[in-house]
């Protein structure tokens, strides 16, 4: 392994890669999805670096991770710059048929290369998270929901393969019962650990659990019943891909101080609002495959500030935000493959400031009720082909968003 890299070199490399992807987006048309995926991973990587630097002096494995980041970024830049340079040279070829054939082959090869780089970054992100490295932005404060929205993708894209590789042998057993003064525990694996060890950790404020088939909802509930001080809770089901069973998460209502909740579990039935902590401020749902519209429940959580529903969190076709619902919601992120219609009634989400609609491929249009949300300051629309034409000044739906100071479009041009 080479000598330890400096913080500046790694940060500069990651930032340079981000700027390269942003600057050359038009020249990278035709591989939009691959480039968008790489940008998302790069953004997540950037937010993890500050905490990684703080921990590199404590762990050789973290120092090695930073070396890996540098190597990956260098390879990514070489691939992108080589592709762009070759594209420039090929503009002089006169035989159009031959040029088109080469163009298509090169694009496919480039797309495959980008996917390979993305997978390598995804693996590094998963390894960082397993080492307890958390996402931070400048100044050391925690990321807002929108700034950390991509972390959920990193879990599902790398999981379960990367989560075990290189960390714990499948036969290793953890004994953590004596850690009664612990306040933070990341990525507790029920496969290698005894979930009943959590019973004595009554001081825990932050907990993330990676659950396997050996841990039922009932076992988990009984093992967490004494954790009255929890403020942040992540629950990730390692068997999401098989959807072998449904989780019951009603027990989260017992965490009366809980403010941040993230669920990556299969739960077709969404709990009633009475089963959620009274002061819950942030919720993120992914791959839950909820069958009935969860918004009528979520909108009754009076202190909810931010919500994210992504990647099959809800598998129905229609959602409704009712009048008077979400009285304090400031940030909402939707990335739902099956959503076709979203109704926003006048008087809903009166405090909403940031809305992100990300790759809701079947959603036909922006809700008409968006025009009533005068508090909205920023709208981000990603991967929605045909929407940009409708929502820019002069477009047929511009009246719905004309009051919003900042409207951003990413990969939405349907003429490309």
From TrEMBL:
The keyword Methyltransferase does not apply. Residues 9-98 form the Disease resistance N-terminal domain. It holds the Pfam family LRR_14. It comes from the Eukaryota. One of its GO terms (molecular function) is nucleotide binding. Keywords: Nucleotide-binding, Plant defense, Repeat. Signal peptide: none annotated. GO terms for biological process: defense response. The keyword Repeat applies. Coiled coil: none annotated. Gene3D superfamilies: 1.20.5.4130, Ribonuclease Inhibitor. Residues 169-381 form the Disease resistance R13L4/SHOC-2-like LRR domain. This is Uncharacterized protein. It comes from Arabis nemorensis.
């Amino acid at each position: 392994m080479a000598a330890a890299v400096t913080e500046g070199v790694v940060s500069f490399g990651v930032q340079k890669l981000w700027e390269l992807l942003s600057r050359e987006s038009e020249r990278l048309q035709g591989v939009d999805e691959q480039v968008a995926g790489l940008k998302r991973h790069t953004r997540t990587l950037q937010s993890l670096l500050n905490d990684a630097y703080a921990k590199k002096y404590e762990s050789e494995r973290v120092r090695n991770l930073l070396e890996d980041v540098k190597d990956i970024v260098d390879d990514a830049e070489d691939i992108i710059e080589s592709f762009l340079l070759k594209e420039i040279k090929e503009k002089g070829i006169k035989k159009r048929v031959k040029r088109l054939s080469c163009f298509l082959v090169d694009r496919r090869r480039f797309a495959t290369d980008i996917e390979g780089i993305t997978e390598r970054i995804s693996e590094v992100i998963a390894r960082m998270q397993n080492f307890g490295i958390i996402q931070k932005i400048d100044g050391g404060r925690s990321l807002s929901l929108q700034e950390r929205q991509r972390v959920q993708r990193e879990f599902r894209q790398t999981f379960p393969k990367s989560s075990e590789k290189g960390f714990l042998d499948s036969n290793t057993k953890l004994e953590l019962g004596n850690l009664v003064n612990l306040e933070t525990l990341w990525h507790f694996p029920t496969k290698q650990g005894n979930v009943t060890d959590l019973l004595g950790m009554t001081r825990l404020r932050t907990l993330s659990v990676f659950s396997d088939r050996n841990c039922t909802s009932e076992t988990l509930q009984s093992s967490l019943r004494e954790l009255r001080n929890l403020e942040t809770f992540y629950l990730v089901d390692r068997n999401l891909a098989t959807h072998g069973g449904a989780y019951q998460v009603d027990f989260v209502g017992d965490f009366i101080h809980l403010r941040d909740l993230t669920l990556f579990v299969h739960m077709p039935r969404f709990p009633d609002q009475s089963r959620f902590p009274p002061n819950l401020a942030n919720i993120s749902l992914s791959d839950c495959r909820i069958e009935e519209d969860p918004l009528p429940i979520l909108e009754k959580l009076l202190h909810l500030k931010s919500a994210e529903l992504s990647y099959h969190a809800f598998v129905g076709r229609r959602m409704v935000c009712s009048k008077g619902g979400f009285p304090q919601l400031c940030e909402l992120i939707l990335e739902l493959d099956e959503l076709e219609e979203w109704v926003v009634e006048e008087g809903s989400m009166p405090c909403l400031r940031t809305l992100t609609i990300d790759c809701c491929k079947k959603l036909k249009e922006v809700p008409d009720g968006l025009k009533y949300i005068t508090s909205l300051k920023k709208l981000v629309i990603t991967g929605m082909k045909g929407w940009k034409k409708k929502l820019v000044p002069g477009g047929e739906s511009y009246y719905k968003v004309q009051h919003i100071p900042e409207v951003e479009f990413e990969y939405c041009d349907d003429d490309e």
